Amino acid sequence: MSTAGVQQHRVLLAAPRGFCAGVERAIRTVEEALDRFGPPVYVRRQIVHNPQVVADLERRGAVFVAETDDVPRGARLVLAAHGVPPRVRERAHARDLQVVDATCPLVTKTHRETQRFAAAGYTVVLIGNLEHDEVVGTRGHAPDHVVVVAHPAEVDEISVPDEQRVAWVSQTTFLAEDVAAIVERLRRRFPALTDPPSEDICYAVSNRRAAVQIIAARSDLVIIVGARNSHNSANMVPVALSAGAEAAHRVESASELLPDWLDGVATVGLSSGASVPERLVREVLNWLAAQGYVEVEEVVSTVETQIFAKPRET
Ligand code: SF4
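# iron/sulfur cluster complex -> structure
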């Protein structure tokens, strides 16, 4: 409770935050396979970019592997939410694995767009980070037609066989303004540039970002809970700073929080990336409460209703 002359300490909790529909579906897929068939259920790479989610599933009997060749013949394999190049699925079937593909349907949409453009003879500029699992998967759907670009300056390096047939798609978690800057540069260089049929930046990324902008405008410090390799979590830090927060930090868990960050801070904004379990946010709230930030206001910008159907085994 605020008292005259005493600085009020409070937390603004962004909503929506945490799990998106694609992440929930991927985690549920592994859990249901464990319930139905019992362990071990193999999972290629991190099912979603969060080590705590991976550890929880490992405790229940999931076995995470780097490649399909690490899975015993005939076993059950779940493919992660970020999607894979077709060769991974082919290799899994060649080894008689029972595959459940938990690729997020929004990533699958980008795969299809890429394949359609490539089949029509287009060079596809994929806006994203070359090393990101999603980009590796999307690129693998038309490797001879895809050029990956992460910065506007890289547009000048592209060489294409036909300047009339250049299209672009993007990684679902890329920052919208970074995409716009690259598209603008592309259009200057290739005036006949073709846009994807619909936006590739996913609803969950846009909603979490908008929610962070709202709390950041009212906060001195913003804390984002998210894993090191979570692109959408990392992106929320610059978003918070440009929306008005004086400082912003990403932490994987409450153990990374530093009391010094709270010096002179009255209001802390708090959110989490699309692959972050809510319990990690609760742990940060508990830590903040122990530092005197007891009052919590949830600021709801959008209510999400998106649900994706279960993937089928192939
Ligand atoms: Fe799918 Fe978007 Fe979630 Fe990625 S962030 S898994 S694209 S819903």
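# post-check
Residues 15 and 300 are 5 Å apart (CA to CA).
Residues 20-23, 81, 104, 106-107, 172-173, 202, 204-205, 232, 274 surround iron/sulfur cluster (CB under 6 Å).
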